[in-house]
Amino acid sequence: MNKLFSNQYVRGGLFIAIGLFLGWAVFHSPEKVGEKVKQTVVESKSEIWTCSMHPQIRMDKPGKCPICAMDLIPLISIAASQSDPEAIHLTKESAQLANVMTSVVSRQNPEKEVRLYGKVQADERLLQNQVAQISGRVEKLFVNFTGEPIRKGQKLADIYSPELVTAQQELLEAAKTKLTQPEIYEAAKEKLRQWKLSEAQISEIENPHNIQSNMAVEATTSGIVTARRINMGDYVSAGTVLFEVSDLSRVWVLFDAYETDLPFLKTGDKIDFSVQALPGTSFSATVKFIDPVIDPVNRVAKVRIEIGNPGAKLKPEMFATGNVKSNLAEYRDKLVIPASAVLWTGKRSIVYVKKAGDEPIFKIREVELGPKLGESYVILTGLTDGEEIVTQGTFSVDAAAQLEGKPSMMNQPDATPITNQSQARNSKFKVSGNCDQCKERIEMAAKSVFGVASAEWNAESKILKVRFDGTKTNSDQVQMAIAKVGHDTEKFKASENVYKSLPKCCLYRE
Q1: How confident is the model over 102-127, as a mean pLDDT?
Q2: Residues 276 and 259: beta-carbon distance below 8 Å
Q3: What predicted TM-score, i.e. pTM, was given to this entire model?
């Protein structure tokens, strides 16, 4: 044995064998190797290439953007493990940093608050004119300025009238023969009555034979003089307006209601209003009249309320602000969501619905809106009771969706399904282009039109086949959208500036 180990070759081989065994024992780990290979495969599958200017472009390998020809950049999708590729997955930290908040959708009895603006006006039914009952000259005015209050029976002016003097003389002559000719006597008195002389004034003329040269004009109503139409010394005819008088014991408030507000207003609705001149004071009244005609200039209809005015606190031309709470019976027990949850994209209204679970995973949903209720909306279709939606931080969620190239406010899904197959339309037309980049750009532009279900362009024949919903779009709109991205169609030609911005491989004009 000693001789065996003393041999240097045997001893060297033994050392080599021991070294190999120790190396294998220390460095060999089947589980780690498998895990490393598996991790590499997963990472390679999660790596996506996108365009910094057009995040909707997503490819599994590097290359050029088919729209702007910029180099694609890598995008590691944190949602590679998600079952729904259209959902947006935020980390809990990023959702908290963006202040994303959600709430559960519920059914309510909606009540719409309509805000109206208007002015106080005098009640037209209480406006009166004080007129001259006889022709003559104004000898004296007892009311000298606009705005002066008057009371019923108050003397307003004296008018000298030669006709009055003649009529009084006729009365005195007729009085002498009233026993034999009572008809003439009564006719003379009736003439004076027609000039609004009272029985006392007629008796005063007749008994002492006192002929009056001036006739007193007395107020027939109480109120405020809103206009004085005469001056001392003016000659007036019978029926001439001397003063305009408004009785402000009761006034109107006329509010302007726009066309969109009229469906929520009706006669009998209660209006709470205030005026700027009386801060802290509120008034209430009911709608008495809604103008059936829209003003063609400012596009509003007048909504009138009537209210007592003790102490004349409400003065004509004061500005008023009113609120009407309208119960929407036709939308009773409908879903109501906060207005902050809704994003608008032209014809579309969208919300982000949170998926079940603790993770902040959201997916876009198109909804149909009903009337706006102040800071909320009635939902007609698109949501169900109990779903959880984003009510704060909606733009942050949408921005994350856009950066990942997923359906968002500005990035519609590639195709719009056709719900009514009877309205499905097929069309094909020629579109100019050269390469695969042209193909992707043309098809993407066609699918971006709302109502298009599918689009396929053949590079050899230059023919684009499109299937779309005839109730939502048409062939001309699709061709127009394609021309806007730089490709000529049968009906529309791309602008020179857009065409020249295409990559060199896409330039098709000679």
Answers
A1: 90
A2: no
A3: 0.56
